[in-house]
C-alpha cells in the first residue's frame, strides 16, 4: 500500500508538471521577440509618431497632426511625379521580366546538356551588387564613350551619339532595362523550380494524346505555374514601388556630379524622394516619415489589387 501511494503521488506530480504552464518555449523565443521589438517594431511605431510632428532632427518636435500628409497630397507635385515614374518603370519591367523569365525557364528546362551552367550564368546578374550595375549601364549608355552610341554610329543609324540618359522616356527605359537584366535570372530559377514540381505523367499523357509543344506549354505548363506567377507579380510590385538603387546609381554615382531625379525628375522614384527629403535637400524627419507611411499604404493597396487580378478564381 505504501509503494502504491508513493507511485500515485509521483504520477500526480508528473501530471501536474505536464499540465502546468510550459515556459521554456517562451524563454527560448524571448531574445528574438526583444530584438524584433527594439529594432523593428519600435522604429515603425516611432516613425508614425514622428510623421505627426515637424522636426529637423536637432531642435524640439512640434506636433502638427496630419499636416505633413495633407502637404504631401496637396502641395507636393514631385511626390505624384515620383509615384508616376515608379509606376511607369514597373509597367515597363514587370511584364517583360515575367514573359522572358517563363520562356527562358521553359527553354532551359528542355536542355539536356549545359543546363546548370546556363542557369548559373543567367543568375549572376541577380547577385551582382547594385553599384556594379549602375557603373555598367552608365558606361554603356554614356553620350561620349558609351558602347551603345559607338555601335549606333558605326552602323550608320545616327550621325552622332544619342543622349540616352537625358531623355524623358529613354531614361525610364534604361532603368527598366536594368531591372529586367538584374531580375531575369531570379524569375527563371523560380519558374524552373515550379516546372520541376509538375508531375511528368501529365506531360506523358499530353504527348500520347497528340499535344504539341506550344499547346502543352500554354494549356498545361502555364496553368500549373499560376501560383508561381501570382507570387512573382505580387513580390515584383512590392519591390518595384521601393525602386531606388538603379536610378540613384545611374545618375548619382558615375557621371561626375549627382543629379537628383535625373533630367527634369523623370527618373525620380518615391524612395529616392524620401532619401532626398531626409538627407540631401533637407532634414525634414516628420515629412519624410509621412512619405514612408504613404508608400506603405500604396504598397498594401497595390499588392492586394495585383493579387486579386492575378490569383485564380475559386470555382463555386
Task: Summarize the model shown.
The protein has 316 residues and is an all-alpha fold. The chain has 14 helices and two strands, in the order ααββαααααααααααα. Strands 1-2 form a two-stranded antiparallel sheet.
Rg over alpha carbons:
27 Å
What characterizes the major β-sheet? 2 strands, antiparallel
Please tally the helical runs, counting DSSP H or I stretches of 4 or more residues: 14
Find the count of extended strands (DSSP E, 2+ residues). 2
SSE class:
mainly alpha
Average pLDDT works out at: 85
Q: Level of helix content?
A: over 70%
CATH topology of the largest domain: MetI-like fold
CATH architecture of the largest domain: Orthogonal Bundle
H/E topology pattern: HHEEHHHHHHHHHHHH
How far the N terminus sits from the C terminus, by CA atoms, comes to 66 Å
Low-confidence stretches: 10-16
CATH superfamily of the largest domain: MetI-like
**Beta-strand proportion:** under 5%
Q: What characteristic shape results from the CA principal axes? A: globular
Q: Kindly report the spatial arrangement of strands forming the biggest sheet.
A: 1-2
Number of domains: 2
CATH class of the largest domain: Mainly Alpha
Domain ABC transmembrane type-1: 83-306
Subcellular location: Cell membrane
Protein name: Sugar ABC transporter permease
Membrane topology: Multi-pass membrane protein
